[in-house]
Amino acid sequence: MFPMYGFFDPTYILIIIGVIITLAASAKMNSAFRRYSKVRSHSGLTGAQAAAKILNYAGIYDVVVERVSGNLTDHYDPRSKVLRLSDATYNATSVAAIGVAAHECGHAMQDKEAYAPLKLRGSLVPVANIGSNLSWIFIILGIIMGANQTLLNIGILLFSLAVIFQLVTLPVEFNASSRALRVLKDSAMMYEDEVEDTRKVLSAAALTYVASAAAAILSLLRLVILFGGGRDD
Question: What stretches pass through the bilayer (predicted)?
Fold first, then answer.
């Protein structure tokens, strides 16, 4: 059940690959944001002002735009109808800032239209959090109790819930970016070349979600390889 070669567990290669993918995607995202955060939008709008205009353009009047501390901590909270923009976005007038603000507005548009993947992701949040936290407890207990396959299987199943959440997140994020680019172009808030620059920023951001999903899948695969094929003694 536990394939080892000396003191080296070969399945760690899967974890290492996941870490490399995640770090590479994060580096690309940070690079793209830094580059286009230096490109001022011709409109002169800040991220907050752009968000307000986009929401109004989309006919959304019950969402509040707030500032939140941190770097790239931007997010939309469908429960409280609040769109929070980070320090790097709220007052910035760059193409990158407006692009990120528009992306979060994309989530607000999804919420207004009851976009199914967004609703599914929202329903999976507590399940994924519980699964992610409890999975290791069951796996550790399973190991302690002499490789109890029932406990190990429960742990793997719980961890898979977090993986499913990561997968459901992908269409939600891709769709939000697509909406953002479309509204920026249709509203004439950005020139064509600015929209293309924004596309590069949002594409880099999308890669971080793909990388997170890939890393989660690799971690699940490792658990299956280590603990999924055994049997109770």
Answer: 12-33, 124-145, 151-172, 206-227
Cα-based distances in Å from 67 to 23, 33, 55, 75, 198: 27, 18, 16, 10, 21
Q: Which amino acid is at 186?
A: D
Rounded distance between C-alpha atoms, residue 211 and residue 26, angstroms: 9
Judge whether 148 lies within some domain.
yes
Region of 188 on the Ramachandran plot (φ > 0 left; ψ -120 to 50 alpha; else beta): left
Q: Tell me the per-residue pLDDT of 163-176, one tens digit each, with 9 for 90 and over.
A: 999 999 999 999 99
196 is catalytic: no
The reply to whether 1 falls in a domain is no
Q: Which domain holds residue 20?
A: 12-227
Catalytic residue from among 104, 113, 194, 196? 104
Q: What is the pTM of this model?
A: 0.87
Residue whose C-alpha is closest to residue 153's, from 216, 233, 226: 226
Question: Listing from the earlier edge strand, what are the strands of the sheet with 64-67?
Answer: 64-67, 82-85, 75-77
Number of domains within the chain? 1
Is 233 inside any structural domain?
Answer: no
- For 144-206, where are the E strands, in sequence order? none
